[in-house]
């Protein structure tokens, strides 16, 4: 069991990180990440700069840690079909964050892993059929990857006019149709 001071520190640290993240989410609804300063985050969170830097290296470190928090649990069970819908649900519920994410062309380990998992599934299907050509497959994979990213970006920019599950059904049906017999 931790001493009381350690528990208090943990609660205080958790609270501080929460207000910092909330400040970033609020600011992202107003402007691009590249235009947000640590000073603005600190003012919005009502903390000092030293507190910010005690928790994060910079704004991009904060951004990356938030994305990791939002997506880590999704991919823990390795159930790709379920994970891809969960990822769309997270994107839907954090639209300002992910709109900035896609518009800034930041890379996501989790999104790449999801698309790579889909590629592995499709590769297995094609190998079983005996119609597998590595060069064509790689080109198709790149086409699908950038296409999926582009379609998600457009969905976000339109304000997610349909829910994540309906959107996912449509999107994944298009991709999977290419690999059906």
Automatic annotation (TrEMBL):
Location of the DNA-binding region in this protein: 37-56
Keyword Iron-sulfur: no
Annotated signal peptide: none
GO molecular function: DNA binding
SUPFAM superfamilies: Homeodomain-like
Keyword DNA-binding applies: yes
Keywords, comma-separated and alphabetical: DNA-binding
Taxonomy, superkingdom: Bacteria
InterPro entries membership: Homeodomain-like_sf, HTH-type_Tx_Regulator, HTH_TetR, TetR_C_Firmicutes
Domain HTH tetR-type: 14-74
Pfam families: TetR_C_8 (PF14278)
Alphabetical list of PROSITE patterns matching this protein: HTH_TETR_2
PANTHER family referenced in this protein's UniProt entry, alphabetically: ACREF/ENVCD OPERON REPRESSOR-RELATED, TETR-FAMILY TRANSCRIPTIONAL REGULATOR
Protein name, as recorded: HTH tetR-type domain-containing protein
